[in-house]
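PT: before anyone asks, these are the final sequences, not the draft ones from last week. 513 residues across everything. Please model them as a single complex and drop the result in this thread when it's through.
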Amino acid sequence: MPLKDQLDALRTEDYANAPPDVTLARQRAVDDLIASGLAERAVHAGRLAPAFRLRDGNGVVMSSHEWLAAGPMVLVFYRGHWCPYCNADLRAIESAADDIRSLGASVFAVSQQTPCESRETVRLNGLTFPSLVDRGGKLAYAFGLRWKVSAELRALQEACGTDLSILNGEPSWTLTMPARYVVAPDGMVEYTDISIDYTRRCDPADLLPVLRHLSARSNH
Amino acid sequence: MNDRLTALKLFVRAGRVGNFSIAGRELGLSQPSASRLIAALEGDVGTALFRRTTRAVTLTEAGATYLMRIDAILAALDEADHEARGTGELRGALRIGTSSSFVLREIIPRLPRFMIEHPALRIELLSNDRYQDLVTEGIDVAFRFGPLPDSSATARKLMDVQRVLTAAPSYLDARGTPTMPSDLAHHSVIIGPAHLSPTFSFRKDGRIASVRVDSHLTVTITEGAIAGAVAGLGIAASSLNSVRTELESGALVRVLPDWDFGSMEINALFVNGKAIKPAARAFTDFLLGELRA
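LR: through. Structure below.
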């Protein structure tokens, strides 16, 4: 099933099952994000991608500098495995991972989750790419994707058992807007797709035209 | 009396552009006549209004204060004449500043309807796709797109216009039709004043997608970018208004019509701190009525 259909099904289920006040609070959070203009100010195509040196769930250090030397990079920012939309998203990326790699690109997922939760995300979704630990969302902040959860939303999440201070291992209660970045070997962002509404994600197939173009360019 | 009035009008223009010869030309005076009139004015007023150097002419402190007062007086005189006339008929000169696209497509086609109502009004259209300095260019009202560069002008928003991407059918046949923003990576975009960077951003379904696009052609006027698109040279970004004719004739088609490419404001700009000429106000109201129709 295409990612869009999966997400639509999840959303329908959510509206049906979640109490109205929860749905309203989540919608309000999305509306606030849209109103804040945060996504407009995030790093977009045509800018240099902030560099990173992060560990994956197993403590192995990955550096953007090293990996870009080998080819373009696909960076997938997500919230956590506690978010069913993120799981669907990551599984869709996994389905496209071979295609992405055959075009010479590396794939990295990034979230604010602890190493333990990052490992769990990889295991749960059968990922063949690492999930990097962005503690405190410092990299997300550099990309302009990090936002602070409102008191209302926090109360709801705690009630649902999603305690971000435990899942992310620090008390800031900030989250990362889901986003995909295609970064060229020279560090330039070639393509981005930022989800202000966390229930909507771009299909991984959308990344392929850009990667093909980069691959063709590097062959000249 | 008329001599004194002419001298005052000349003084205001010379004070703004810093040049007697240019100011004189605007009023149909030779440089020597202009210099003479200013000298006579300084004699009448009893103080030097200008400091003359080999390179330029600048206002003295007294001249700068005098300029502000005289400017307001001339504007009030203009209003008084207009009111006394009582017919709403406009006279004198109206200097309008705007971009190439807007002057060709939106202003000039509508001018006959306006000018027939005001046969005694002389209109000067100053078309420039780059920044126009309202003060030094003596512009009474400027119609500009996009965000305002600074707060040096008083703005009255006319409307929002949709931004679009367009290309010639021949270009799309040869290079393929993009179905999503990332497809643009394979395409060539024509860079013009309406969109200066090779990055395009789109909104759809609660997401923002942006893509870097290659460009092989840059043009300094929007009309040039549109002509380039019609000639099949690439994809052009512009306001919907700027390509309406071409879209209707089929010379251009919309690219990625399902994606929101944003909008921009059309603003009427007036010089800060200066009374708005009746002719400028009347033309702005006229244009607004026409655009909204």
